[in-house]
Design a protein that fits this description.
The protein is of the alpha+beta class. Helix content is 37%, strand content 10%. The strands form 2 sheets. It has a 3-stranded antiparallel sheet, covered by helices on one side. Strands 4-5 form a two-stranded antiparallel ribbon. The N terminus is likely disordered.
């Protein structure tokens, strides 16, 4: 009888342990998209966890600190700009093969909500860094090695084809100073900025975090984008 009771207790412990493991597996890995728990979606939760510091001086910033523009860091033989045009445009046509984009339609532009036609050489479309490179410089990237800065500048997670005039109006603004005029896109936009800052360990100002949380509070189930390139570019790429 003693052995039977002990065996029963052991069986119960094993069943509980197995059930517990299955529960953890069902919740997914940290990198997966999800709605999150604890009173907010994954994007809002991630925004709340970002480190807050003051903006560092812009001293020393140049575009060259992030490597040459549109480096082919994913080694697919297409430059990063064409990769994003191919991803984000509709009705895409190529100059040669399936790499160099000659035309297409931004339908719609995520920032303004209007349709914009892209034609190579006289383009109304820019590729925006969701987290501007100068903003990144002032919030941590100044202290990185060149490989990480090059990775940020060419990471599809941080890039978006947009209307050129809207992008130039944004400049190097963060969430506290600029948001897309298309209000329906604001949650997606802010979630993407949060994802980039989380992935690369960039900090935010107090005003920036407050603005992020204000936007994301209007869409409590907003997911956090994931993926993109590694945070270290191949060693053949250099920055000045």
């Amino acid at each position: 009888m003693t052995r039977l009771r002990d065996g029963a207790v052991i069986a119960v412990v094993v069943i509980f342990a197995v059930a517990g493991c299955k529960d953890l597996q069902d919740k997914g890995s940290p990198g997966a998209q999800g709605t999150g728990t604890g009173g907010g979606g994954a994007a809002l939760t991630a925004a709340d966890a970002l480190t807050v510091k003051g903006r560092a001086p812009k001293t020393g910033y140049t575009r060259e600190k992030f490597g040459s523009a549109w480096a082919d860091t994913d080694s697919n033989s297409c430059d990063t700009r064409d990769d994003i045009l191919k991803r984000d445009l509709k009705e895409v046509k190529f100059t040669d093969g399936d790499c160099k984009v000659s035309s297409g339609v931004l339908d719609p532009d995520p920032y303004s909500g209007k349709d914009v036609t892209y034609k190579r050489g006289r383009s109304l479309v820019d590729i925006d860094h969701l987290v501007a490179l100068s903003d990144a410089w002032q919030k941590g990237a100044k202290y990185w090695d060149a490989s990480k800065r090059i990775a940020l500048a060419n990471d599809p997670l941080n890039l978006l084809a947009v209307d050129a005039s809207a992008n130039r109006g944004k400049g190097d603004g963060d969430t506290a100073t600029w948001l897309p005029s298309d209000k329906a896109y604001r949650c997606t936009y802010v979630a993407a900025q949060v994802a980039v800052k989380k992935k690369y360990g960039l900090w935010v100002t107090a005003a920036e975090k407050a603005a992020m949380k204000k936007v994301l509070a209007t869409c409590p189930g907003q997911k956090l984008p994931a993926g993109g390139n590694p945070t270290k570019a191949p060693s053949r790429f250099k920055a000045h």
